[in-house]
Amino acid sequence: MLDELAVENLGLIATARLEPPTGFVVVTGETGAGKTLLLGALRLLRGDTAAKGQIGPVGDETRVEARLIDELRKLPGVGPKSAQRIAFYLLRRSREETNRLSEAVGTLLDDIRTCSSCQAITDREECAICSNPARSPKIVCVVEEPHDVLAIEKTRDFRGRYHVLHGALSPLQGVGPDELRIRGLLERLRAGETEEVILATSPTVEGEATAVYLARLLRPLEVRVTRIAMGVPVGSDLEWADEVTMAKALEGRRDY
Ligand code: ZN
Fold first, then answer.
1. How confident is the model at residue 59 (pLDDT cuts 50, 70, 90)?
2. Among 250, 206, 205, 255, which residue's Cα sits nearest to residue 229?
3. Quick one: pLDDT band at residue 87, thresholds 50, 70, 90?
4. Number of domains within the chain
5. Of 66, 82, 108, which closes a domain?
6. How far is the CA of 69 from the centre of ligand 1 (A)?
7. Are strands 24-29 and 113-114 parallel, antiparallel or unpaired?
8. Global pTM?
9. Together in a domain, 131 and 37
């Protein structure tokens, strides 16, 4: 496999180097003509004169692609292969299309903020749920992340409001109560409109720890504190449930 290759021809010096982990061949040289010569030689070696994407463009442009791939790889669910595929896809798009994408990403944080009341992501001072008079302020559902709101909204069953903590307690990762949006929750509860707080943090170690912490913290306030039920998933067979889930399901049983 090619690691490093240098050519010197007619005084035109250039080198080609395989850059892990992107798999790009970075071509550098003192002159553009030298780089073009080497690139042409590499394509001929591969028997591939047409595939521009297989060997990156000359010089700095290749660096730009490698940088883009590095940034894309940091996105959730995107591995090195997918990052490379997305980068090549973008290279084939028109300048207008890529401009639209980069503008949407660039202005993301300008337009987005957190709701002054529930801390969900919104583009207004108060989010659509908090400013909707049909949503009852008597029930507040506490969740870890903004996307958890969408998960509960999908049920179309909940008519109360939310409070987003923006994380869960995790001493190992240095996340303590001060790192979560708990103060805003207490202020809302002290305003006196809320009758019930539903703790809808995830059934993980961190989510459970957060729920236990909040339940203790809210005890002095005159508000009913409940925890979402946990148990066997709907539509699945009991034999597939692990023992912890089954124990939780038995523990959370109710009159029927
Ligand atoms: Zn809100």
1. very low
2. 250
3. confident
4. 2
5. 108
6. 35
7. unpaired
8. 0.64
9. no
The rounded distance, in Å, linking the Cα atoms of 225 and 211 is: 10
Residue range(s) defining the domain that contains residue 206: 114-251
Q: Are 127 and 144 contained in the same domain?
A: yes
Q: Which of 64, 90, 108 finishes a domain? A: 108
The CATH number for 96's domain is 1.10.8.420
Residue 235 structure tokens: 């539509």
Residue 256 belongs to a domain: no
CA 131 to centroid of ligand 1, rounded, Å: 7
Can you give the pLDDT at residue 147? 94
| Gap between the Cα atoms of 91 and 66, Å rounded | 12
Cα of 74 vs centre of ligand 1, distance in Å, is 29
Strand ranges (E), 100-220 = 113-114, 121-122, 139-143, 161-164, 196-199
